[in-house]
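Human: I'm a chemist; would you kindly supply sequence and structure tokens for a protein?

Assistant:
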Amino acid sequence: MSEAEIPAKRAPTRRRFADELPFVAPAQRAPKPPWLKIRLRTNDAYKSVRRTMDTLQLHTVCEEAHCPNIYECWGERTATFMILGDVCTRRCGFCAVMTGTPGRVDPQEPAHLAEAVERMGLAHAVITSVDRDDLPDGGAAHFAAVIQAVRRRVSGCAVEILTPDFKGASGALRIVLAAAPDVFAHNIETVPRLYRSVRPSSVYHHSLSLLEQAKGMGAPLTKSGLMLGLGETRDEIREVLSDLRAARVDIVTIGQYLQPSTGHLPIHRYVPPEEFEEIRGEAMPLGFRHVEAGPLVRSSYHASRHVQRQADSTATS
């Protein structure tokens, strides 16, 4: 792969959370095991997605969060759109997205994103966002506008949204669900004991409540994600999975935490593939419709397949 084909990185013009965490020397970072090795490959589809995002001035979590699956997903003409800008108002210890004071919300973003969905020929669009605690509704109305724009432009395209917790903004969840997304997702991320360092501006039980409320308000499918390798125990993982199922979550994704930089939270350990499979085996009997577990699994990884698999299992049950 030529140097020109490597994904461009924005200049760090804003302060990242990494600047405020204790420095972790490179020598302390264990080398990645073989099962986390990825091929840096680009094809015509990858380049086409890159052009689409650049032309329409859109952001993707694939780039902003340094997702290891970007080459595979973009190479298959899929991507996870990130709306409401590329600057987050929170400082989570695991996240590579820049933090600081966000700019204004782009009123053209819904139309541009819908155009991108059409250009890419997507049948299942995944849309997430930065946290926008500076907005009265946390960005809920903008989420709704994006969903509606996609529906108007690409009839029949399923829309999956991965939202923040909206900081408890009154009516925010109702605004989003009124736009009728096909999948409502919100990531629990880690076990309660680790929230203070992993998600310092969030509350575990608030996230659980958001998922439960979404189901109660009529969300057809609810989904959440969990990272491993931050120091959680198997018993704690089991408790979180039990909590998610009690909140009537349908789909769960479980993947390996990867440290974005030496300034982010260190990796406690690399979880082997067979352990992910064991955890999946423990989760399915709880009643989830689908559980995707593996080292490189992320919230939106194979998202359309998650929905199709649960639909197939429902049809045959």
User: Anything to note?
Assistant: The chain has a mean pLDDT of 84. The radius of gyration is 19 Å. The domain at 39-316 is CATH 3.20.20.70 (TIM Barrel). The longest strand covers residues 221-228.
